[in-house]
Amino acid sequence: MKNELVDRYGRKLDYLRLSVTDRCNFRCYYCMPEEGIDFVQRKDLLTYEELDYLTGIFVNLGVEKIRITGGEPFVRKGIMDFLSTLTRHRTLKEITLTSNGSISEKQIQELHRLGIHKINISLDALDKQRFFEITRRDKFDEVFACILNLLKLGFEVKLNCVVDGNKNIADIIPFVKLTAHYPLSVRFLEEMPFNGTGKFEVPEWNHLALYDYISSHFTAIQKVQDGKNSTSVNYQIPGYQGTFGIIPAFSRTFCGTCNRIRLSATGELRTCLYGPAVTNLRDVLRSGANEASIKTEIRDAVAKKEKDGFDAEELNAKTPKKSMSFLGG
């Protein structure tokens, strides 16, 4: 059988989002309650050895890109050694990271040495007080210093801003203007129903409203080419160094080109963020299954991938949605 993962709609899944922990040192309102969530016990997490073993299987099945997520990846002890181990998968073309900016200068230097040069930083406000209200942590200066350090060393940096009409609308235009001075990409995301509270309202600030709001503040906006399988629609203000994009994370207009598969820190495999776990590879692995059996489990899961996030959500309609920190984004 050809070593690739193709779903019933002909989409090739070659991008794995790999969560290494459900823990986070921030408490962003759209991700978890202020008091946090019931974090899983350490024994229930995939060990780094198990994560590396499963990564090898995914790579053998055609995965070319891996994004390390959490929780916050850098709160898990030993993360740098694990990243070093991942770079040994020679056919893996790209390793990227999503972080809240809790990356030390030493870790940034090590990432650069390992050749991991693409990082997404979650940053929802440029105002320190709004940052505190959103994250419930007084860490803005630390996060922004991290971003500047990354840019200084030539990292490709994307800032992910979740937009809430009641919290950070005043930050939208400053974020766009930030791209005048720095070669980074700011992406505005619709809010999603993964805050761990079971309560959610459909966002009024959807991708259309976001574009209309931004375009009303600038005389010219240029469309820039979107990358293959891009979830964002991307633009640039003429003369600015960076770009901005809008991700219809709740509207889900990009599902037709989805190439992603997700593995949580506890082994739950999802073919869609909105859908249920289709299997648990931790349990399969710890039951003594060999590589061939695990490959079959993964192929079977991919074969059942739903057409889009709305169909996937229907399968999960009666189950309370988990925290984004647990799901891994």
From TrEMBL:
Its EC number is 4.1.99.22. It catalyses: GTP + AH2 + S-adenosyl-L-methionine = (8S)-3',8-cyclo-7,8-dihydroguanosine 5'-triphosphate + 5'-deoxyadenosine + L-methionine + A + H(+). Its cofactor is [4Fe-4S] cluster. Pfam families: Mob_synth_C, Radical_SAM. The keyword Metal-binding applies. Residues 8-226 form the Radical SAM core domain. Keywords: 4Fe-4S, GTP-binding, Iron, Iron-sulfur, Lyase, Metal-binding, Molybdenum cofactor biosynthesis, Nucleotide-binding, S-adenosyl-L-methionine. The keyword Iron-sulfur applies. InterPro entries: Aldolase_TIM (IPR013785), Elp3/MiaA/NifB-like_rSAM (IPR006638), MoaA (IPR013483), MoaA-like (IPR040064), MoaA_NifB_PqqE_Fe-S-bd_CS (IPR000385), MoaA_twitch (IPR010505), MoCo_biosynth_MoaA/MoaC (IPR050105), rSAM (IPR007197). This is GTP 3',8-cyclase. It comes from Cyclobacterium plantarum. The gene is moaA.
